[in-house]
Amino acid sequence: MKSKKTQVCIIGSGPAGLLLSQLLHNEGISSIIIDRQSRERIEARVRAGVLEWGSVEALDEAGIGARMHKEGIPHAGFDLAFNGDKHRIDIKGHTGKDVMIYGQTELTIDLIAKRLEQGCEIIFSADDVQPIDVKSSSPKVRYSRGGESYEIECDHIAGCDGFHGVARSAIPDAVMKTFERVYPFGWLGLLVEKPPVSEELIYANHERGFALSSMRSETRSRYYIQCSLNDKVEDWSDQRFWDEFSLRMGPEIASNLKTGASFEKSIAPLRSFVAEPMRYGNLYLAGDAAHIVPPTGAKGLNLAIADVRILSRALVEHYKKNNNDYLERYSEICLKRVWKVERFSWFMSMMLHQFPDMSAFEKRMQRAEFDHIVGSETASRSVAENYVGLPLEM
Ligand code: APR
Ligand code: PHB
Fold it and tell me: In which element (H, E) is residue 223 found?
């Protein structure tokens, strides 16, 4: 067994793990990152692309924001649409802040490049990754690679290995509580090298189902429609997608739609999930390892970034001031915000999708929710405040 030493061993080289390592490096705290996938696979993942303003500031503080500002697009608002009736949520007007359109894929590429450039050890394609002795003062992470066995000794383990990772299962069932809602539909998304149908995002509820118009740049669009969980990507030709998307967006919006051959198409399930606690001994969960939100609120990436901002500050207090207060309260601090963000993502999902067993009364409730937001400055402001990002309270 070959062994290595570091202060913080990070399982998972997604945005949560990479940003944590960057924030710790900037404070002179060492870390090793380990991931079971190759660098190519991780950098090829297509995920969402809306950054809260707090996330933009965190990436700037971490010294990783240059390309985001060069290629990203600040947005001051977005539209909600209901059977063709549109209402703009004036994010900037209500909060004084924008959101930033910048793909998670690009952010992950930036973070990996910076980490490697600064000499961080990222162990890609590791097998059988196992956190052990997480309750002891010298936890370890074991893994194998190329037939060799390795052990990383550390002070703290950060479980940033996503929903299907190994870290969460290191917390005994007797201690772990989980909360979940699985939605009875999925999102069929595609990427196309065509200018977006609208300058800002449009979240649309239509009697045929939900649809979302988003983008990666002024020449690359990202579109989604609600689909059945039984659907397969091969059931959806590009033409069938364009026809359905146009119907759900309505003739006015669809008249501006520029279609073409998609270069990526995939179906994602929708789930709300929270695991409590997010800390167990010297193991700290962050990002999708601890919670999942449906994409309707554009919160998955931002919640992961918020967790590691809190965890890195807590670790800095520990190493620099010997103050363990924040580490001890890490789970409580994160979960307070996590549940509010789960609420917003659930609220948007309940208002904007067609549920198979929905009653006529519930459909009217969705409409009334939309009409309330349209008619109430306060309700619009509440949507804007949640969308731009709730404050980080430590
Ligand atoms: N061992 C090592 N690495 C693992 C293991 C394991 N057993 N299981 C998973 N991983 C790695 C994955 O390969 C992935 O690179 O952990 C990483 C987790 O990254 P993400 O899933 O991107 O999770 P996170 O960094 O928390 O980012 C959350 O990703 O899914 C989106 O919507 C979500 O935007 C949010 C963001
Ligand atoms: C995306 O651009 O992929 C996207 C944007 C907003 C969402 C979800 C996904 O709410």
Answer: strand 221-227
